[in-house]
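Schema walkthrough. Field components (list of strings):
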Amino acid sequence: MSSTTDFPAPAPEETQDPAAEMNASVERAARRERRMQVLMPVAALSSALLLWEFLVWYNEVPHYLIPAPSLIAQTLVTDFATLMDSMWFTVKLTLLSLALAIVGGVLLGMLFALSRTIEVSLFPFAVILQVTPVIAIAPLILIYVHDTFSALLICAWIVAFFPILSNTAIGLRSADHNLRDLFTLYQATPLQRLRFLLVPSALPYFMAALKIAGGLALIGAVVAEFVAGTAGQNTGLASRILESSFRQEIPRMFAALFLVSLLGIVIFLATSFLSKAVLGHWHESEIKRES
Amino acid sequence: MVMESTMTAQAAPAQDAPTLIRMEGVSKRFANGTVAVRDMNLDIREGEFVSFLGPSGCGKSTALKMIAGLLSISAGEITVNGHPPGKGAEQDIGFVFQDPTLMPWATVFENVFLPLRLRGMSRADARDRIEEALASVGLAKFTNAYPRELSGGMKMRVSIARALVTRPKLLLMDEPFAALDEITRFKLNNDVLDLWARHKLTVIFVTHSVFESVYLSSRVVVMAARPGRVSDVVDLPGGYPRTEAYRTTPDYAENCRVVSAALEETMK
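Field assembly_structure (string):
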């Protein structure tokens, strides 16, 4: 058995054992799927933009009716400074109102979960706040609150607050009853019960609420600003849209609109990412299943 | 299942062991008027393996939860290890529910750590005891797994490890294996018998299976429904050590017949 020529040298493709081969093919498929997840939406969006550009050019649509995407992009560049100022204002308003909604919603939600009496007494107020359209309350708030920013903040907060409140209250109540018994059996203190049982149980509900409230905070901020008009000097994207509409500057309207959408998308992605980071390792909603 | 080779042999509980649980005239009436348990009298000695056997609605789970201090007592008195239920300074009861009742967001290690953590023990101090408890149910390699990654039987073992991690005297089990397949259930039956002997536990085991109760227990408390009450108590001191072989002995078959007849009696 000194000679190796008894056995033909394996071809390079066959050097891998079947298991490694299979792993490699699974990985290739996974990579392909990840690529497709990015490529397909990008391709679809690009085609839509190209089609838009082409139709505007082909039909010679005037820019004050429907501007081409290229013109909107150009406006974004030329008006960059003012648009960014407005964007920053809207970002500040949205994030601050969201933060306040989280603080208020979680605190009140805990109170609700703690006591049925408090919930029964206060819930009607929360519902009234929720069902009354913010656009209808906004003028009143603008009259009573002198500082425009604070008034806008209150409006956006009202919209974002309710989902956080109701989901936190439901989430805190949703803890498994046997687990509650277990905590009773081991004589857990109320604080231990909150930290190790109620908060983790409520997290999936809270995360779902956060995704909704993030979008709502932006809507609240924009709607409130529309109602306020261009009253304030330091104003956000909604005022830019309103102002451009008065001046018939349609490309600028589109540019501001684009930034509002972009902001919404970023908020959505951020909250989705956060939800995945927090729940990804255990909650059914964030676990990827193999088919 | 990996079991330590140095097993304490199972033996019938001593007749003269001190009483661990005393139930005197215990009744439970729920707010909706249902009488779940009526006038229950029972003494359980240290080292006994007692099954509560009965049809649905006979109050066997209610009785167990009252012993654990999870339900209030409407009338009568229960003493557990010298104190009222749930009032001991040190928690000396382990409880296994029908569902594994694990925290889905926590690993196996964290789940078993829970009782010690609630007692204020640090992770470092608890590590040895947690690993020991997990090893005793054959799950030493699964400390970092999440519950959803485990099978039903394995989840139940984690639940048992969690109940044992505080080294309790008393282990209360509320139909723990009812939802499992028979192969897994037989395995876990043997495991529970081993743990009972090794840790010198007193076990109260709620079940609606005649065969399970006869296989496991040194005494079967047969209960009747509407209102829930004790209808018969059957002593089963023989057959130790109980292994798979016991399931096919004439002794086992005869015990099953006696207990079945007692259970039949409650249905009349």
